[in-house]
Amino acid sequence: MKNVFRFLTLVGMTLAMASCVQDLNTTPIDKNSATGFNQDALFTKIYATLGTTGQTGAAGAGDIDDIDEGWSGLFRVTWVLNGFPTEDGWWIWNDVGVAEMRDMSWDGENALIKCLYFRCMIDAKYCNHFLEYADQSDDKGKQQCAEVRFIRALNYWYLLDMFKFVPYMAKESVDPENYPDFYSRTQMFNWLETELKDLTVALPDKRLNKYRVDKTAAYLLLARLYLNAEVYTGTARWEDAKTYADLAISHGTANGYKLHSGEKTAKDGTRFSAYQQLFMGDNDINGAQDEAVLLIYQDGKYCRSYGGAQYAIAATRDGGMVPWGVSANWKCFRSSPELIYKFVEKEAAAKTKFNEYEMPVQVKDDRAIFCSKVKGNTNNWSLSGNKAADFYASWACPKFTAVYSSVDSIKKSINSDSEWPDTDIPLIRLAEAYMTKAEAMYRLGDAGGAMKVINDNIRERAHAAKLTSLSDQVLCDEWLREFWGEGRRRIDLIRFNRFAGSVADGSGYTWEGRPGVTKEFRNWYPVPSDDKRTNPNFLKQVVNNSENPYAAEGGDGYTYAK
Q1: Does the pTM exceed 0.85?
Q2: Which of 227, 242, 257 is the last residue of a domain?
Q3: Residue 229 lies in domain
């Protein structure tokens, strides 16, 4: 396999799991020497991989060679691959690989696909290294290992979801050449199912602090696995999806998790809804942390990354918008008109002119955190779409902000740094369990019960009108309304047969950038050509597999130069 990993030095970004992050500990790791292994430092590094990209902060010593470090953050690159080819939004800049993402023409040379592939691989490698050398003689060591196994499982779930064949390494080294095997989706599904079920026992009932995982996380990732089981294996598992969504809700509720509720109003009259507070600068202390089943640490002073909250905030702002707590504004990512029309009727949208705090009230849905007009800003947003270079061709989508919900005025920032945000990333939220339960009930024939789950929990929190009927289209749209801008849209579109292939093309479901005709293999991404060429297991296990319908087409439907 291509040697893309830096593994000589690990920076233990001491997340101060009970308080603030302030110390950077550099520890050399020699995989052949137990004396070079610092268990606590590597444990912290593994959690840090969720929100950082390298060894020195925002940039300069990335975990992965030969790629743009800023694009390699787990949150950013999963958001890119799950959002750019959908109606979730439009990236304005023509960075390497972006155009192919927007118009669904990527191949195995795409730089963004490589970012995701190698990010998950290096993170899994860190986990394997930890599990091989960790001291499990006491409860602390056993719990650390269980948490590391969960993070490894999360990375393998992303690989399962994104690729047709998954590079899998169970240990530090599988063979003398250190080449991973390639599992089919069914094989990886089965491994993850077993691993996560074991973790529902091995993980603690309650997390030690808000940045660590517990059994609720395992229940919810299992529910996600089962919800998409038909995509991965060809066999639906709706009953299991409902069972584990219920377990995530009941176990989570018993251990402090809950849907965040309760709005706040600043002295200047700005309303911060409960939904908005999930994505604000103080979402680790304003109550929103109780909804986050997996919260990624970010801090303007001690934990900086171009692949985390900075990306989500700066990309969606121009300098004339309502204050957002920090100065960075890239104005390179906006909504698509199709996303807006999930909240506002097309005819009414052209007349709807409000900023992101006014919009939810006017639209009567707290999740409509969009901006179409700012007082005093000469720029006018439209809904024309199809203008890759125009930030104003559809409404701004400033869902994430560095503003604290405790401020008297949004003009008064109390962020710890003037450029870098404190906003944590709720990578997995309890709201997903309610939506998963509802969809599973709907698939099992209980549309009324599914509607009640959504109305009583998801839509009530959003102050949105109750659903009066449920269909595939309504349910697919509701997933978008709740989770837009959080890096999962492609996953849901595929499950509803609305992403790629003849069924998707025939559904009439479209958005800017989508080609008129798509092929089924667009439902997954190609294993990077570099790995196809250099890993002999790909040829043996994938290309030469007589049962693989894509054996003659690069192994996964994408050709490459051998």
Answers
A1: yes
A2: 242
A3: 9-242
SS3 119: helix
| CATH number of 47's domain | 1.25.40.390
Cβ-proximal residues to 64 (8 Å cutoff; 6+ apart), any chain: 4, 5, 6, 72, 115, 118, 119, 122
Cα separation, 240 vs 263, in Å, equals: 35
Among 189, 224, 242, identify where a domain stops.
Answer: 242
Query: Would you write out the chain's pLDDT as a tens digit for each of its 562 residues?
Result: 333 333 323 333 333 222 222 222 223 333 444 457 999 999 999 999 999 988 877 877 788 887 788 888 999 999 999 999 999 999 999 999 999 999 999 999 999 999 999 999 999 999 999 999 999 999 999 999 999 999 999 999 999 999 999 999 887 764 557 789 999 999 999 999 999 999 999 999 999 999 999 999 999 999 999 999 999 999 999 999 999 999 999 999 999 999 999 999 999 999 999 999 999 999 999 999 999 999 999 999 999 999 999 999 999 999 999 999 999 999 999 999 999 999 999 999 989 999 999 999 999 999 999 999 998 887 789 999 988 889 999 999 999 999 999 999 999 999 999 999 999 999 999 999 999 999 999 999 999 999 999 999 999 999 999 999 999 999 999 999 999 999 999 999 999 999 999 999 998 889 999 999 999 999 999 999 999 999 999 999 999 999 999 999 999 999 998 8
Torsion sign across C-alpha atoms 86, 424, 54, 533 = negative
Residue 26 pairs in a beta bridge with 11
The domain tally of the chain equals 2
